[in-house]
TrEMBL record:
Gene3D superfamilies: Leucine Aminopeptidase, subunit E, domain 1 (3.40.220.10)
Domain of life: Bacteria
Origin organism lineage: Bacteria, Bacillati, Bacillota, Bacilli, Lactobacillales
A Pfam family hit: Macro
Chain ranges of the Macro domain: 1-176
Signal peptide span: none
Name the record gives this protein: O-acetyl-ADP-ribose deacetylase
Amino acid sequence: MNQVQTKIALTLGDITKQGDVEVIVNAANKSLLGGGGVDGAIHKAAGPQLLAECRQLNGCQTGQAKITGAYNLPNKYVIHTVGPIWNGGAHGEADLLAACYENSLRLAQKTGLKTIAFPAISTGIYRYPLEEASQIALATVQAFVKANPGAFELIKFVLFDQAALDCYYRKLGGLQVEL
Ligand code: AR6
């Protein structure tokens, strides 16, 4: 059988400018009505129709994901997921963050999408430490790829600064050795 391999890529940049993926993931809040950080950038680039569609969704629980159109973005869809607010790490944050990645991938797969880009969910305004968050992001995505071979062609992490990119590179190296 000719199984398509999933490429996992790391890139430095702005998630609103990733024309090579069908869907980008938004690090939203439970209202889904916009905010700062990557959420603000996505709404600004998508235009007001995105907010209009989000208003129909009745919010989203932490760890869950919902999908909308992408409007003026160079993608087909936006998946909105709500990361946990960091509160010391003993309040279920790790499971909730893993659920964001897992549920976003499931929703994309269910929609028939093969290419997806993630930001570093929860690592900005929600203060999740990057070391731990990047480990969870990469391990969750790699576990999904192993369990669903060929489901995705490209899973991309779009990191906003060099420190985040370096951190992901280090973690990805370690995980690949473990495989
Ligand atoms: N492209 C890629 N990554 C970005 C971009 C961008 N354009 N802008 C910021 N980042 P944050 P959170 C990075 O704060 O921590 C919002 O108000 C940023 O450097 O956007 O999940 C929501 O409405 C950081 O590494 O999301 C919620 O209220 C990462 O994206 C709350 O913030 C996530 O930072 C969610 O907080």
